[in-house]
TrEMBL record:
Its EC number is 3.1.2.22. Pfam families: Palm_thioest. The keyword Signal applies. It comes from Saitoella complicata (strain BCRC 22490 / CBS 7301 / JCM 7358 / NBRC 10748 / NRRL Y-17804). This is Palmitoyl-protein thioesterase 1. Residues 1-20 form the signal peptide. One of its GO terms (molecular function) is palmitoyl-(protein) hydrolase activity. The keyword Cell wall biogenesis/degradation does not apply. The lineage of its organism: Eukaryota, Fungi, Dikarya, Ascomycota, Taphrinomycotina. It comes from the Eukaryota.
Length: 320
């Protein structure tokens, strides 16, 4: 019934758009696109070629858009190291300050997170959200953690050393306070240690007894939270984490987000968001972070740019 209604409304608005084609659209009427903030993933840096290319593809669509790529150090090599070594809570805090201090962002922005940058931007929304995020779009992120440390390229020694240290004793205080990936490690077969020792994820997912109501309140203010998953994902174990689902790696059973307590008891505002039509699960072709120009531009057209004419979170679902 609801589905039918949505289709009808979409058709109606399409008709309106056609009739109004000769009038100036809101995009032409001087309304600037909302700025975009991008948080890159593990092993990347804020000046990487890939990021530059993706930023330029957004500018092809919105020539006047302001884009900020988050950095933890202005030196690209240290910025890259900070994707492996550091304390995530402190990194998120530094980013809250970086974004608050940027006058270009004062009116709010759309946030795009790549891989681990996605759950870190979600933490920004939950803990700070000042200035506020309109749409949060995450690509291949580990919202429900990882059950194994991500694999490294053969020649990536920084990555390999982080991985080896982490695997040696993931809950030891040395590892959990210093290795970034250990701070979102979550093995569903060992929830006891996770709830006791997790340095980042258990808190930001509000999984402990005491819930922080601010997290749920802030996340529910998003207009859209879009989680993209890579169809041929091999890097992130398990890939279901990109849709906030949980996988039992022994039985292969997958519990979807909507069937989990974090959603049903609305620990972080996802249910409230979903009931407003603001929660979207999309799958894109490709291996981890192999973003096609086509999928990227579709995202940019759908979720970035000026405010859409039809509000209330009601919009056509595009298949990516
Ligand atoms: C809840 O989170 C907010 C935002 O990070 C923080 O200011 C507050 O101290 C937290 N409350 C508790 C009880 O931890
Ligand atoms: C995962 O599946 C196995 C085998 O069916 C089962 O014994 C185990 O309890 C399950 N784990 C969780 C966390 O549900």
């Amino acid at each position: 019934m609801f589905y039918h209604l949505a289709i009808t409304l979409a058709v109606v608005s399409w008709t309106v758009a056609c009739l109004a084609a000769s009038l100036p659209s809101r995009e032409d009427s001087g309304q600037k696109p909302l700025p975009v903030v991008i948080w890159h993933g593990m092993g990347d840096n804020y000046r990487g070629d890939g990021l530059l290319q993706l930023s330029n593809e957004i500018r092809d669509i919105y020539p006047e858009i302001y884009i900020h790529t988050i950095y933890l150090s202005t030196d690209p090599s240290s910025d890259r190291s900070a994707t492996f070594f550091g304390c995530v809570d402190q990194q998120v805090e530094a980013v809250c300050e970086q974004l608050r201090d940027n006058p270009e962002l004062a009116g709010g922005f759309d946030a795009v997170g790549f891989s681990q940058g996605g759950q870190f931007l979600r933490a920004y929304v939950e803990r700070c959200d000042d200035p506020p995020v309109r749409n949060l779009i995450t690509w291949g992120s580990q919202h429900n953690g990882i059950a194994d440390m991500p694999a490294c390229k053969d020649t990536d020694w920084v990555c390999k050393s982080a991985r080896n240290i982490a695997r040696s004793n993931v809950w030891g205080s040395y590892v959990r306070d210093r290795i970034v990936q250990a701070q979102y490690y979550r093995d569903p077969e060992d929830m006891e240690n996770y709830l006791e020792y997790s340095a980042f994820l258990a808190d930001v997912n509000n999984e402990r007894g005491e819930k922080n109501a601010t997290y749920a309140k802030n996340l529910a203010t998003l207009e859209n939270f879009v989680m993209l998953r890579f169809k041929d994902e091999q890097t992130v174990v398990p890939k279901e984490t990109s849709w906030f689902a949980e996988k039992n790696v022994t039985s292969d059973d997958v519990t979807l987000l909507r069937d989990r307590p974090i959603y049903q008891e609305d620990w972080i505002g996802l249910k409230a968001l979903d009931e407003r039509g603001g929660l979207t699960f999309l799958e894109v072709p490709g291996e981890h972070m192999q973003i096609s120009t086509e999928a990227w531009k579709k995202m940019a057209k759908e979720y970035l740019g000026p405010r859409k004419v039809i509000g209330n979170g009601l919009k056509l679902q595009t298949a990516f």
